[in-house]
Amino acid sequence: MTLTPANSLREHGLQATAQRLAVLSAVSSRPHITADDVVEIASVEIGTISRQAVYDALAVLVNKGLIRRIQPVGSPARYEDRINDNHHHLICRICGRVVDVDCAVGSAPCLTADDDMGYEIDEAEVAYWGRCPECQVDGAAATDFLPPNQRRRSNSITATQDI
Questions:
Q1: Torsion of CA 44, 65, 87, 112, to 10 degrees
Q2: The pairing of beta strand 33-34 with beta strand 78-80
Q3: 122-134 per-position pLDDT tens digit
């Protein structure tokens, strides 16, 4: 039996508010979504929602393990609902697209530190960087890689993830 989003929230000790449900829905609708895009999507779904309410809901949902927060270097934080597995990400240096890739080898945490310095390691975060197939076709070369604040942006909130 699949839990509804409202039941999932309650199972994690949270009230099923309209804001939390809208944020969960937005994250589920678009993997690797930014908080700004969550605000836009949630606003369409429930009407007015403050940016602060979205940030608060995202923080609570991450804390409770309902969604995952990633932050590739040079990128705003992104959120996804693919949790409880140990997957990594492919990131295009040209357009900023982020896609999931399953763990390269072995079981969690995938990587074993040569010297764990006394830490109890339970997760390894890996980001593979390069050019996505579309940017390769467009002819973007390694020398065309731009800093995050100068990369192309999409005007559509339903377009692929952008930086």
A1: 150
A2: antiparallel
A3: 777 788 888 999 8
Q: Are 65 and 12 in contact (CB under 8 A)?
A: yes
Is the same domain home to 70 and 138?
A: no
Q: Which residues pair with 101 in a beta bridge?
A: 88
Could you tell me if 152 and 124 lie in one domain? yes
pLDDT band at 145 (very low <50, low <70, confident <90, very high): low
Q: Does the pLDDT at position 42 exceed 70?
A: yes
126 in the same domain as 105: yes
Identity at 35, one-letter amino acid code: A
Write down the H helix ranges in 16-50: 18-29, 35-46
Q: In what order do the strands lie in the sheet with 88-92?
A: 98-101, 88-92, 127-130
Exposure of 127 by Cβ count < 10 A (0-12 exposed, 13-18 middle, 19+ buried)?
A: middle
Query: Inter-axis angle of helices 51-63 and 18-29, to 10 degrees?
Result: 80
State the residue range of the domain holding 131: 85-163
